[in-house]
């Protein structure tokens, strides 16, 4: 297992580097200028000086390696220094947002907590809801519970989150007035009343994401459980006198989790990059909202950074999923 993990890591590093190069070159060729939002009265000489100060006068490969160095070393050290207070932040240029002229790392650190709270809770609740629904639906195939779960899952997965979010706002905010329609990122929990308000404003975006995630994961869980319930080892376990609870929850569930782990692991990067559409609907100032705003104003350093982080997370959690295969199923050997 260790040698396989090291081989995968050795393969993952060039994969991430190739992705970073492709992303950088594609966005470098895209239309957009850091001085495009400045007043038209600014002379061309001043605009050119601004471009030179941002390093846009260098050749494209020079700019790529500078960006990669700042992305992999400078920005992480600055973030770590800000979180711990250690004096480890190197001096020199940083990745600057064309829109705000602020370091991209500082902007992302400010937005990560909002994304983790909203999108993270939505994904966590979706998993906790999906797994028992998938197990019970498979064990009681074609029962009323299975039919109801299938119906709700199909609706939750087929209807896009931007439509579900609007429906939730219309029903629970406009008609019933139970929850606020917009998320207040400046709200601070100090007492019980502020905690209740925080729970109310986070309820709808979390519910929208949990419904979508639970609908997807529960379908995979049900299909995997049905496939394993008909295997020979299940009949053998029952013939040996093992209890039905032990057969289903120990033997069948463990083997059924193997394909589900892939779905869950691949979906985890969305927790960090944000559910883009949902954050836009409920005005959550998370990473997804930052990505959309950066695309609107052609803030390519911000787009490059968030996209690169997303690629790293996908490669990392695919590796974690492969390692978990061997833990869940001892028959799988990589060496």
From TrEMBL:
CDD domains: TM_PBP2
Gene Ontology terms: biological process: transmembrane transport
Keyword Secreted: no
Domain ABC transmembrane type-1: 112-321
TM ranges: 9-27, 116-139, 151-175, 195-215, 260-282, 302-328
InterPro entries the record matches: BPD_transp_1_N, MetI-like, MetI-like_sf
GO cellular component: plasma membrane
Membrane topology, as annotated: Multi-pass membrane protein
Family annotation (PROSITE patterns): ABC_TM1 (PS50928)
Keywords: Cell membrane, Membrane, Transmembrane, Transmembrane helix, Transport
Record's protein name: ABC transporter permease
């Amino acid at each position: 297992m260790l040698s396989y993990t090291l081989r995968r890591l050795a393969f993952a590093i060039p994969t991430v580097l190739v992705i970073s190069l492709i992303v950088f070159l594609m966005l470098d060729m895209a239309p957009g200028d850091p001085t495009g939002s400045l007043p038209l009265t600014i002379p061309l000489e001043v605009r050119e000086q601004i471009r030179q100060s941002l390093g846009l006068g260098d050749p494209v490969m020079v700019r790529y390696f500078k960006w990669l160095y700042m992305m992999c070393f400078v920005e992480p050290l600055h973030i770590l220094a800000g979180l711990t207070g250690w004096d480890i932040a190197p001096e020199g240029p940083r990745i600057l947002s064309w829109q705000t002229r602020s370091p991209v790392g500082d902007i992302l650190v400010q937005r990560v907590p909002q994304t983790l709270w909203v999108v993270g809770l939505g994904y966590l609740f979706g998993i906790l809801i999906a797994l028992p629904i998938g197990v019970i639906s498979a064990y009681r195939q074609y029962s009323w519970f299975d039919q109801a779960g299938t119906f709700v899952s199909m609706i939750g997965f087929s209807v896009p989150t931007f439509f579900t979010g609007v429906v939730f706002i219309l029903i629970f905010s406009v008609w019933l007035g139970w929850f606020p329609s917009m998320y207040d990122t400046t709200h601070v929990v100090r007492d019980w009343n502020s905690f209740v308000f925080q729970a109310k404003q986070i309820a709808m975006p979390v519910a929208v994401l949990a419904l979508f995630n639970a609908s997807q994961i529960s379908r995979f869980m049900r299909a995997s459980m049905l496939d394993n319930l008909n295997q020979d080892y299940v009949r053998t376990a029952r013939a040996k006198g093992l209890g039905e609870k032990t057969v289903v929850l120990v033997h069948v569930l463990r083997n059924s989790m193997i394909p589900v782990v892939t779905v869950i692991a691949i979906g985890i990067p969305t927790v960090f990059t944000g559910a883009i559409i949902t954050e836009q609907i409920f005005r959550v100032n998370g990473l997804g909202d930052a990505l959309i705003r950066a695309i609107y104003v052609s803030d390519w350093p911000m787009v490059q950074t968030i996209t690169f982080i997303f690629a790293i997370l996908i490669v990392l959690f695919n590796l974690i999923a492969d390692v978990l295969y061997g833990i869940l199923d001892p028959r799988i050997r990589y060496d």
